[in-house]
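Reviewers asked in the last cycle whether our approach scales beyond single polypeptides. To address this, we selected a multi-component target totalling 424 residues and predicted its structure end to end. The input consisted of the following lines:
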Amino acid sequence: MAISRPARASDDVAGKQIKRTIWSGVLAGVGLVAFADETVFHQLLHWHHFYDKSTLAVGLVSDGLFHAGGFIAMVAGLFLLADALRRGGFVPKRWWGALLLGAGGFQLYDGIVQHKLLGLHQIRYHVTLWPYDLTWNLIAAVMIAAGAALMTGRAGVAGSAMFRSDAGTAA
Amino acid sequence: MPLALTLLAAVGNGVAWYRLSRRGHRWPARRAACMLAGSLCVGAALLPPLASHDDRFEVHVIQHLLLAMVAPVFLALSAPATLALRALPRRARRALLRMLHSPAVFVLTAPATAVTLDLGGLYALYLTGLYQAAERDSVIHTAVHLHMFLAGCLLSWAVIGIDPIRRRPGIRGRLAALVIAAAGHDTLAKLMYAWMLPAGGGPAAGRQLGAELMYYGGTAIDVALAVIVMTQWYLATGRALARTRRRSAVAGP
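The resulting structure, written as structure tokens, was:
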């Protein structure tokens, strides 16, 4: 009986920890795709154009929001990760699941809404486009499915004492 | 004009440091270094060689990034109002504290106000004929610089400031303000690139280079701002966490 009260309190704490873990993963996932898109497709391959002069103003607003939001999400997600780790009770499986959901969701938004509906820019120019679009959105769908799979089922808390700043006092 | 303000601020800081050290108080060196770096950025933006070539649009953009974005970040981190509160005589200190806690200052330093003034000024400058007018008229030119600098300061104070302002918004509000300001800045840069703006900005190549500099330079500074906000949050949360753990350790299991 003596154990019941601390156990309930720690259930509450564990719920908060799961929330922190998931937020951190989603933000880092969105940031990762925004970052990969910017460096790989814009800077390295030069497939995407900085601006292809066919875009409506609403597309530019959407792009600006996700460009700026993506980088800031990455920074916020990594700091939230550091916070979740130092608190102890971090759940790696849920973090990876949330990361994949965030990354896949953003990639799908980019592929369907930004590339197609808003006509912001295309994946590549002067080529047959549909295989690129299909691959892009399929990768997004796979990430979402894998993320959803990791979000269900049993998941253990990170056991390593390295992650537990309060490991000594917990007992 | 901002240069004169900065010189005045630098002299004021010197006097404040002197008064504090005479009383045996210490002022953190990193805050002094931030004040120095911020003043240097303002100086670099408003003195030759940048100032003598600011008829070229890409040079104007570098000036704008230094004056309205980099300098305010350093100045906000130097906590000038806190320094003034420590160094001023009692009566002046009370007056300053009353002013800092006044409704007017609360409204001015609210993130929504800061973002509106900052983006509003930028969009008016580059999308209307204001840039061209400022190129011709030195009074408008000075007013534009002053507005950019002050609006940048308001935004930096709202997002990363450490001076005692009443009811500072929480981490979510500050991050949201940063995302909106950054997105507005990026969108404007792309609009300028697309529409070959601003009017009167010189050769087309210079205008496009300027817009790209504004886009990537702005992103770099916004990422730095995000890192600063989150570092402040991480340290503050860590202090709260340590307090809770100490308390539960004292209370016992």
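Chain A touches chain B through 25 residues (CB under 8 Å). We regard this as preliminary and will revisit it once experimental data from Aim 1 are available.
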